[in-house]
Design goal:
The protein has 194 residues and is of the alpha/beta class. It has two domains: 123 residues, Response regulator (Rossmann fold, 3-Layer(aba) Sandwich); 57 residues, Arc Repressor Mutant, subunit A. It is 57% helix and 12% strand. It contains nine helices and five strands, in the order E-H-E-H-E-H-E-H-E-H-H-H-H-H. It has a five-stranded parallel sheet with strand order 2-1-3-4-5, with helices on both faces. The two termini are 28 Å apart.
Length: 194
């Protein structure tokens, strides 16, 4: 699916982006604010084109809100000249790319296409990780401590010593962790946590 979500409080910019993207065969949904995007259920498909500065919640604030509930589709920021440092900071937090206004249409469209290709590859992995994180949330505090030691490569004796419990108790917690998370071995768990 070639879905693009445009979030910008400037109607002229939204209209121009919609016209450009639809002309290239993309399906576009536009939102006049970050709040409107959230009210729509924070769609998690396609690519999100997001203005850095908007009235109300800023694009950067919306981006950080999205990061709280993965999976997060590729986010392409649109920035004014003075907002480039903010966009660079967003890139360090995981944004896909940014374009300074006025932007080159060909370059922008190429970025959106790359974002969609990336999303098609990454979405299954991100969804799987989000489900794993949910299951990790069901662990008790002690099980979580044992899991952290397990994935750090610690042997049962080392875990027992570090946590001040018996090796047998570690074995019980280790078995509970693997069962609750749906794994047969700590190696597979470690692979999926990376």
């Amino acid at each position: 699916m070639k879905q693009v979500h445009v979030v910008d409080d400037d109607e002229a910019v939204r209209d121009a982006l919609t016209y450009l993207l639809v002309g290239e065969g993309f399906t576009v949904t536009s939102y006049e604010s970050a709040e409107a995007f959230i009210e729509a259920g924070k769609p998690n498909d396609g690519v999100i084109v997001l203005d850095v500065r908007m009235t109300g919640m800023s694009g950067i604030e919306l981006f950080h809100e999205l990061l709280k509930t993965p999976p997060v589709p590729p986010v392409v920021f649109l920035t004014g000249h003075g907002d480039v440092p903010l966009a660079v900071e967003a890139m360090k937090s995981g944004a896909f790319d940014f374009h300074e206004k006025p932007f080159d249409e060909t370059c922008f469209l190429a970025t959106v296409r790359r974002g969609l290709e990336t999303w098609e590859r990454e979405k299954p992995r991100q969804q799987s990780r989000a489900k794993l994180d949910e299951r990790i949330g069901t662990l008790s505090e002690r099980e979580r401590q044992v899991m952290e030691q397990m994935v750090a490569g610690q042997a049962n004796k080392q875990i027992a010593h570090a946590l001040g419990i018996t090796v047998r108790t570690v074995e019980v917690h280790r078995a509970n962790v693997l069962r609750k998370l749906g794994y047969r071995s700590a190696i597979n768990l470690l692979r999926d946590l990376q």
